Structure formats: C-alpha cells, structure tokens
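Data deposition worksheet. Section B asks for the primary sequence of the deposited chain exactly as it was used as input, without tags or linkers unless they were present during the calculation. Section C holds the resulting structure in token form. Section D is free text for depositor observations; keep each observation to a single sentence. Incomplete worksheets are returned to the depositor.
Section A, Depositor: J.P.
Section B:
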Amino acid sequence: MGEGGSGTMDQPAENQSNFRIGTDGAVDSAAPRGVRHQKDERPMSVTSGTKRKEGGIAETGRVIFHALIIALVIRTLLFQPFNIPSGSMKATLLVGDYLFVSKYSYGYSHYSLPFSPPLFSGRIWGSPANRGDVVVFRLPKDDSTDYIKRVIGLPGDRIQMIDGVLHINGEPVKRERIGDYIETEEGRTQRVKRWRETLPNGVSYTTLDLVDNGFYDNTPVYQVPPGHYFMMGDNRDNSTDSRVLSQVGYVPFENIVGRAQIIFFSIAEGEHAWMIWRWPWTVRWSRLFTIVR
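Section C:
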C-alpha cells in the first residue's frame, strides 16, 4: 500500500509459516513447505496402568501374607482360642463358652505347634503347672483330641475320692456347701448341689454333685507318676478325667497345651454363634471377659 496508508504489509511467501492439517487432525506448524507430514503410528502405551494393577495385587498379597504370619505367631506362642463342647467343667465353664488359652504359661512342647509335628520331645522354657489351674491338654490315649480340666494332683501326689470328698496325700480337701446350681435343660429346671472346694495352696473354686454315691465318688488311691498330672472336671459326676485310667489317666507334662485365661464370648447351649441376629437373646453377656479361675 502507499505511504500514509494503514494495514499489514504482505510478508514474503518464503517467510510465512506453512500450517497444514492432516487427515488425522494433527496440526503441523514446523514442517517447511515441501516437506510431507508423517503420522506417528506407534501404538499407545498402557504399561503404566498394567503395572499399577499388578502392584496393587502384589501389595494385597503381601498384606495377607504378613497377617497370616502374625496370626500364626500369636496362636503358636501367645494365645489360642478354644470353645467348650461339653458340661464336664460346669459351672466354671459352660457349653458355648469361647476362651483364650495362654500358650506361654508352661513353656512349649510340640503340641504347641500347628498340626503338632514331633520335631522335639519334652518342653522348651518349661514351667510346672500349679494345683488348681484350668488347663487344655492332649488326651494321652488320642493326642489329636483336646480336653480341658482342672489340675488336682501334682507329680508324686496320692489322690483319692472317699464318699464324694477329694483327698490329696491322705488329707481331705476343705469344702463347704453353697447355694444350689440351677440348671435348665429342654425346658426342665433341675437343682444341683454345689460345693466350694479349697485346695492346699489356697486355690478355691466350685464343684457340682449331681448324685449321691456316684460311680467315681469312691475310688482307689491314684499315685501320680513323675512328670505327670492328675486332672479332674468340676462337674464331678459328669466328667471323664484322670479317675478313668482306661480313657484319660495320668497326663504327661508334655501333653499340656496351655492355661485357660479368659472367656471372650459365650452363647447359650444349642445356639449358633454365626446367627448374629439372635445375639441379643442368646449371648450370655454377663460371662464376656470373665477370668477363668
């Protein structure tokens, strides 16, 4: 345009940018004229997404693995849960009680390990059981079966029942009559005689006497062998224990699994713990977190 005019001066063609839009919609502003634009046909990478997914699965697996290891250590070295299937320890323990048993109380034997592999004999860091302890042990006649009873006789003791009274080393154990135990079964109520026994070391607990002159109310003298214990149930007329030599007999120290410590859950006999909607009526709330004595 002439002088004094306004507008834009035309730039030489060779200096102008050559914008071209390809068929794929890409804008090429850098390619000079005469240079053909080439489309990048390399496939899109999805590696990062796949790695994230694989990393999440691996992390979940590690968490589960660590949780299983921790649970295994706790079960083997510290506490193991058990439930009570029979009434041989009434009224100390009831059918439907769930309790923790301490594995460390008496040291460790191969019965402390999962599946009880016979890797060693005897006990590691063994500490003797005390008279009056409530313990879980492996049945000597069938070491795949767990029993729970009270320690009555120590190695070397002489144990005998005379007219329903427990005698240890020739001396009757002190006992006093207390209020009857009320038992309800299938809609029927039964009153059962209840006694408080006190062992020579001062441990006190209650026992039940279902019938007078029961089958094991009078027994011969039992001489407890070295390294063994004499176990009895608190429900004296309804307990298969060391008085029955053919079924239980004397329990080797090695067979003791641990000491009963605390009831962490309890549900009425005949009820199922998985029926959560029935818990308000079936859980024995007063027994939760009760110390076993």
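Section D:
The radius of gyration is 38 Å.
The first helix runs from residue 47 to 78.
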